Amino acid sequence: MPLEFGKYVKTVLERAVDEAQEAGAATVEAEHVLLAIAAEPDSTVRALLESAGLDHEKIQDALDEEFERSLSAAGISVENSELPPPRRSAKRPSRMGASVKLILERGVVEAESKRNLQPAHLLLGVLQLNVGTVPRALAMAGVDLDDFKARVHRSLTDETERR
Predict the structure, then answer these.
(1) What is the pLDDT of residues 1-54, one digit of tens each?
(2) Digit-coded pLDDT (tens) for 108-157
(3) What's the whole-model pTM score?
(4) Which one of 43, 92, 107, 154 is CB 3.0 to 4.6 Å from 121, fit for a cystine?
(5) 146 near 128, Cβ under 8 Å?
(6) DSSP state of 83
(7) CATH topology of domain 5-80+93-162
(8) Taking Cα atoms as reference points, which of 8, 70, 6 lies closest to residue 40?
(9) If we measure between CA atoms, which residue out of 131, 128, 134, 130 comes closest to residue 148?
(10) What is the domain partition of the chain in residue ranges?
(11) DSSP code of residue 89
């Protein structure tokens, strides 16, 4: 049985803080939430991610590629750069960025009622970001975002009808 939505969100956000700390980030952002979702054992969300060819490692690779391309667009080559690699921060991030707030708002809005909230609503909130690191990284990974969103919507509808 899937976790209650509130507990699921709390667990994902705690893991997202760990992901941000591991990356040396001062703020928890959408990419950390997506990585945290991919690390969670919820079978429905995991199956949805796998249907798009995604897991934690592939998401991290796509985020790394997006970072390198963004730097390249600014005229910075990672290979020739003297930028140090990201280091785990000694301090845990204590702030949620604007993208995390959008994820939560958009995921909850998609539910017909609060009692219908499911873990996949959080994933849908991530997928509804139109700009930023995550949509660019997913596009670079070859994910058809419109198709993926439609599959998540269908999954949520099917789950609601089973209840």
Answers:
(1) 345 888 999 999 999 999 999 998 999 999 999 999 999 988 889 999 999 999
(2) 887 877 778 999 999 999 999 999 999 999 999 999 999 999 999 999 98
(3) 0.88
(4) 107
(5) no
(6) P
(7) Double Clp-N motif (1.10.1780)
(8) 8
(9) 128
(10) 5-80+93-162
(11) -
